[in-house]
Amino acid sequence: MTGQSGLGPSGAGQPGVPSGGRAGQPVAGGSGEPARSLALVLVESGYERLHAAFMLAATAAALGQDVILFGMGAGVAAFSRDWSGVDAFAAGESQRARAGVAGVAELRDAVVDMGACLMVCDSGMKAAGLSPANLLEGVACVGLPSFMDRAAHARQLVF
């Protein structure tokens, strides 16, 4: 996502640009409707919850869905360059490596490579004592209204 705004590949989230998927994306469940976007709100910094969120995000992105990840509260740690705020990060990564399963770091890289929109709440950043310089490149620091506008038509899950 180098040099991108963090608002995803479709440009959605900008005024006058609808969010909710890409043209020509796969049909969801054979219903005849295009697959919708998926918005995951990360509110905790526990490794297992973050792993589940990034697994879902990677799967949805691989299926061509527009994916939004939004960190708020302790969840902003998932978007930090150094992982220091993620509970049990080293142990979780080690366990996944022994099992031959992708860890959070690998999943986050994959989600970024597939063009997911990464956002963090500005108040969560302040509460965590982080600055934009602490964030992974391409992560947008926004207010809650910006996230809600961007994810208005997405299925939303909280982790």
Key features of this structure:
alpha/beta, 159 residues, five-stranded parallel sheet, 5 helices, 5 strands, disordered N terminus, single chain
Helix and strand layout, with pairings?
Elements (H helix, E strand, L loop, with lengths): L37 E5 L4 H16 L4 E5 L17 H11 L4 H10 L3 E5 H7 L11 E3 L1 H7 L4 E4 L1
Describe the structure.
The protein is α/β, with parallel strands linked by helices and 159 residues long. It contains five helices and five strands. It has helices at residues 47-62, 89-99, 104-113, 122-128, 144-150; strands at 38-42, 67-71, 117-121, 140-142, 155-158. Strands 4-3-2-1-5 form a five-stranded parallel β-sheet. Helix 1 links the parallel strand 1 and strand 2 (67-71). Helix 1 packs parallel to helix 3. The longest helix is centred in the middle third of the chain and has 16 residues, at 47-62. The radius of gyration is 15 Å and the shape is globular. Residues 1-31 have low confidence and may be disordered.
A few lines on this structure:
The protein contains five helices and five strands, in the order βαβααβαβαβ. By secondary structure, it is of the alpha/beta class.
